[in-house]
Structure to design on (549 residues):
């Protein structure tokens, strides 16, 4: 047990001077950021700037070479960390959905709580059906991922993560592989989640969406956070030339 | 309207622009996992009566040089036929089934060892797989024959190991190695996103492998597995070199019993060839049908 107990008024995710390299390639060069409970933060930046790597460090999908990442006060890159506990707390949704193709939508949502958390099946099923309804997929419970559109698959993926009852959700460019019409339905789902008070960390290229839902925006370039701030000031008064250039291209 | 023909390129009816056909690069590279079955299943229907006719007609062509007539040769074949099938070919089937059982079991274990997280395990499994996959089957058979004891003693009981059992072990080695590759290939064909999704849902590596990855590739493994069964069945006559009394050994003995007339060779061995093909043909058709279904589904 840690001696200093985490309390909800402290940052729920806290990164300090995080360094990450793939071989000789240093991808994160000292990242520090704090996320408070219930906050929605968006990470934007050019391709290859290390956004995916950054959020994958938070649930220990990537290891780090230096610095510290704490989730609810618990050091993520501690060797004795209970990974099951961390990953139950931190849900993640991917760009490519990554649903399990041999399982129906309902089974996809139910599998991890039943098999990993060993929760009773009927209880999980009830929760899973509610979640599928919440992401507006009632009626699709017994469809296989191959029978669903991209947007529908992505919403199943969101429900699958939520079934673990996480405290924090990570979204890595979850609309990047979708066609414009289906982007909206996924964004609505995320927005509702944020409004319910879920702590969300999003990597996104949807600037309008970021401006609308983010409490705080971080701009990364070549492994460092160049600039950050609440959307109101970030989009209007970006000071760094790299941010200005990026925004001028994308807006 | 139809223009020149370019190999590998066809013009669709709506346009005369050449359209590049979809090609499976694995097939082009000679790595078709169901290559044998693809060839066998593609044999035209008229192959069968033709081959059967050859059985009968060849002696007719040869009879000019000999007093022994083709009627006699054919009669000899039919006389021996029930014996050849029930004592000979059925034994080949038994050998192939037992070899496949042992080879699959060992191959699955070896294949899983090939994707182990422990580097030494992985290296050993990989070396074993490559060694047995690339050795001549006959050499493996002889090594097992000579290396294995003739009998084992368990306490006071002496068990004599028959040659056919050694042959089963010998053939199981290359099958094991090839199934090991089938397993490894199937596991590695699953996109890494599946591993990551499972990991982010708190699955351990072992849970991911057994609950997420293997169920997905099980179907994909069936066609190549059946392909290896067909290849193995065709290879069982190798056992005759160890003196195992399977179809080829018995055919030779039958020809000897019929005074070694050279006219007998072609009908007897063509019959052997035919019965192997006839046994494997439905397997090949099924393999190809399954392969089509599974590739369309995914
Ligand atoms: N597993 C890996 N092994 C080696 N290099 C990697 C690996 N993953 C990412 N990289 C490299 O790290 C850098 C940052 O990658 P990352 O995926 O974090 O960028 P990104 O900001 O998410 O880009 P995008 O917007 O294109 O998704 C890139 O140069 C990439 O090539
Ligand atoms: Mg990325």
């Amino acid at each position: 047990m840690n001696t200093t107990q985490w309390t909800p008024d402290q940052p729920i995710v806290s990164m300090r001077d995080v360094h990450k390299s793939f071989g000789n390639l240093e991808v994160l060069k000292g990242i520090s950021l704090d996320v408070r409970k219930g906050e929605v933060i968006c990470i934007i930046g050019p391709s290859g700037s290390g956004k995916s790597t950054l959020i994958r460090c938070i649930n220990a999908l990537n290891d780090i070479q230096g610095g510290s990442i704490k989730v609810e006060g618990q050091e993520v890159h501690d060797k004795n960390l209970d990974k099951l506990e961390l990953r139950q707390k931190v849900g993640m949704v991917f760009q490519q959905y990554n649903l399990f193709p041999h399982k129906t939508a309902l089974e996809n949502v139910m599998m991890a709580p039943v098999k990993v958390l060993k929760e009773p099946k009927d209880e999980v099923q009830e929760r899973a059906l509610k979640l599928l309804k919440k992401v507006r997929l009632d009626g699709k419970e017994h469809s296989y991922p191959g029978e669903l559109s991209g947007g529908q698959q992505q919403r199943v993926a969101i429900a699958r993560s939520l079934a673990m009852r996480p405290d924090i959700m990570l979204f890595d460019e979850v609309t990047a592989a979708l066609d414009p019409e289906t982007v909206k339905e996924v964004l609505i789902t995320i927005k509702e989640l944020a409004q319910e008070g879920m702590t969300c960390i999003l990597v996104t290229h949807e600037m309008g969406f970021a401006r609308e839902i983010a409490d705080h925006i971080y701009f990364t370039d070549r492994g460092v956070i160049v600039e950050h701030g609440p959307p109101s000031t970030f989009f209007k008064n970006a000071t760094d030339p790299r941010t200005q250039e990026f925004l001028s291209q994308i807006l | 309207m139809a223009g020149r023909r370019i190999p590998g390129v066809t013009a669709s009816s709506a346009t005369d622009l050449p359209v590049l056909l979809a090609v499976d690069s694995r097939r082009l590279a000679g790595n078709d996992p169901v290559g044998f079955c693809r060839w066998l299943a593609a044999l035209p229907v008229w192959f069968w009566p033709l081959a059967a006719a050859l059985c009968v007609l060849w002696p007719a062509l040869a009879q000019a040089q000999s007093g022994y007539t083709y009627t006699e040769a054919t009669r000899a074949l039919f006389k021996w036929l029930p014996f050849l099938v029930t004592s000979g070919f059925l034994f080949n089937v038994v050998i192939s089934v037992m070899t496949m059982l042992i080879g699959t079991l060992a191959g699955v274990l070896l294949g899983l060892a090939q994707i182990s997280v422990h580097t030494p395990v992985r290296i050993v499994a990989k070396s074993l797989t490559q060694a047995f996959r690339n050795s001549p089957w006959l050499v493996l058979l002889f090594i097992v024959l000579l290396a294995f004891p003739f009998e084992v003693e368990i306490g006071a009981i002496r068990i004599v190991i028959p040659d056919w059992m050694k042959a089963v072990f010998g053939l199981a080695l290359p099958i094991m190695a090839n199934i090991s590759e089938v397993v490894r290939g199937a596991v590695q064909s699953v996109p890494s996103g599946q591993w990551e999704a499972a990991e982010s849902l708190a699955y351990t590596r072992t849970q991911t492998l057994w609950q997420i990855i293997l169920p997905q590739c099980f179907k994909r493994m069936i066609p190549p597995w059946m392909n290896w069964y067909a290849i193995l069945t065709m290879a069982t006559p190798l056992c005759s070199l160890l003196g195992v009394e399977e179809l080829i050994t018995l055919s030779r003995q039958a020809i000897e019993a019929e005074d070694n007339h050279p006219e007998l060779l072609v009908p007897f061995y063509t019959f052997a060839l035919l019965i192997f093909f006839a046994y494997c043909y439905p397997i090949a058709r099924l393999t190809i049908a399954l392969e089509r279904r599974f590739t369309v589904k995914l």
About this structure: Chain B is about 70% helix and 5% strand. Chain B touches chain A at residues 191, 193-194, 196-204, 207, 211-212, 215-216, 297-298 (CB under 8 Å). Residues 10-14 of chain B have pLDDT under 50 and may be disordered.
